[in-house]
Write a structure and sequence with these properties.
- A hairpin with a 2-residue loop joins strand 7 and strand 8.
- This protein has two domains: 188 residues, ATPase, nucleotide binding domain (Nucleotidyltransferase, domain 5, 2-Layer Sandwich); 182 residues, 2-Layer Sandwich (Nucleotidyltransferase, domain 5).
- Helix 6 runs antiparallel to helix 12, helix 8 packs parallel to helix 12 and helix 12 packs parallel to helix 13.
- The protein is built from 15 helices and twelve strands.
- Strands 1, 2, 3, 4, 5, 6 and 12 form a seven-stranded mixed β-sheet that branches. Strands 9-8-7-10-11 form a five-stranded mixed β-sheet, with helices on both faces.
- Bound molecules: adenosine-5'-diphosphate (ADP) and magnesium ion (MG).
- The site of magnesium ion has 5 residues, from strand 2.
């Protein structure tokens, strides 16, 4: 079956589209990527998404309209990808659309007298199915939350598929807006896999780069600004001492933890410092907190031979250099070596998850999300009759 995976991550930089060819069933599920592209969001759309995701009060009408607008944009991305890949839509059997997270709170907190966990991804799948004529699976996270999980991370199912090895212990590290990792011990079965969000990935860097450029830059390309600065050691050690990094996995983070309020606090701590020094500090926080998480939560439980990096942060030379310096004997490798390009992995993953759902099979990894049981993820939307 050919499946398109659609996703926009917490960075809200654009829509990733992956075309996958998938067949079989676990433990003999085979999936390979055929093609991939990213379509950047128009800047006003990105700003609207970030506004909605910052937890500022927004009327239901705005969220509702954004949901349908993003549905159109995701559908256009799917159509554009098929044209670019020269694959007729009729050959696409299924679409898996992660959508855009605008709220994620994986752990229950009291709300109107009850402990409630909640997650919301938008990008209306009914629009995607109607425009493409292809059945669409979307809204993957709520089923896991309903089973007591944090609804994230969901990529570990695919990390296990791609990276398991009889003799080598592996960690898949994705540095998106948030950084997360999946541990696949040597000879692991699925129940030996565990995963969690280590903390910030590119989210703080992007916010600062945008701020210091008066909104002209969405990120610090090649870490050029950060490379000119010196990290503020005392700020860095205060940030690294914070509670999130000490909390036992499973754990998830998002814009709720590392969004606007966090950036404001970082700026207060660094008040009077030069822009490039603050950026250098935020840039180093990512690899240092990742290495810290490896030492605290991973190395005591599993031998690690390879660290496989993916996500936009793998293009940040400062992050990579600092990671490499902190890894000791662990080999730093790129996702490309394993068949799925690092920028494409998450979109590819949602193609695979949709395929599982279509066949009524679960795809959460309970040790990764904290769910009590395996869950079939997502909701299936069928296209309108006769529109193709
Ligand atoms: N050449 C580069 N130099 C520095 N940072 C980069 C580069 N390319 C991508 N990035 C970073 O990667 C981010 C996008 O990463 P991505 O994996 O798409 O995250 P998400 O899954 O949250 O959307 C950008 O916002 C930017 O911070
Ligand atoms: Mg992205």
């Amino acid at each position: 079956m050919r499946v398109l995976g659609l996703l926009s991550g917490t960075s809200a930089d654009g829509i990733d589209v992956a075309l996958a060819q998938i067949d079989g069933a676990p433990p003999r599920l085979r999936a390979r990527i055929e093609n991939f592209l990213t379509l950047p969001f128009p800047p006003p759309v990105r700003r609207a998404i970030l506004r909605a995701g910052e937890g500022r009060p927004a009327p239901a009408s705005e969220i509702s309209r954004l949901n349908f607008l993003l549905g159109e944009l995701f559908a256009e991305a799917a159509l554009a990808a098929c044209r670019r890949f020269r694959v007729p839509l009729a050959k696409i059997g299924l679409i898996g659309s992660h959508g855009q997270t605008i709220h994620h709170q994986g752990r229950p907190a009291r709300f109107l007298g009850r402990p409630i966990a909640a997650t919301l991804q938008i990008g209306e799948p009914a629009v995607i199915a109607a425009r493409t004529g292809v059945p669409t699976v979307a809204d993957f996270r709520p089923a896991d939350v309903a089973c007591g999980g944090q609804g994230a991370p969901l990529v570990p199912f695919v990390d296990f598929l791609l990276y398991r090895h009889a003799e080598r212990g592996r960690v898949a590290l994705n540095i998106g807006g948030i950084a997360n990792l999946t541990v696949i011990p040597a000879g692991a079965r699925e129940r030996d896999v565990f995963a969690f969000d280590t903390g910030p990935g590119n989210m703080l860097i992007d916010a600062l780069a945008s701020r210091y450029s008066g909104g002209r830059r969405a990120f610090d390309v090649g870490a050029r600004l950060a490379a000119r600065g010196r990290p503020l050691r005392s700020v860095l050690s205060r940030l690294l001492a914070e509670a999130y990094f000490r909390r036992q996995p499973p754990k998830t983070a998002g814009r709720e933890e590392y969004g606007r309020a966090y950036v404001a606090r970082l700026l207060r701590m660094a008040s009077g410092a030069r822009a490039e020094d603050v950026l250098a500090t935020a840039t180093l926080l990512t690899p240092l907190s990742i290495v810290d998480a490896l030492h605290r939560f991973v190395f005591p439980r599993a031998r690690v031979d390879d660290l496989i990096v993916s996500g936009g942060g793998a293009s940040n030379p400062l992050i990579l250099a600092q990671l490499e310096a902190g890894l000791g004997r662990v080999r730093l490798r790129r996702a490309e070596e394993f068949g799925v390009p690092g920028d494409a992995k998450e979109a590819f993953a949602f193609a695979v998850l949709a395929y599982q759902t279509w066949h009524r099979r679960p795809a959460n990894v309970p040790q990764a999300t904290g769910a009590r049981v395996p869950a079939i993820l997502g909701k299936v939307v069928y296209p309108c009759r006769g529109n193709h």
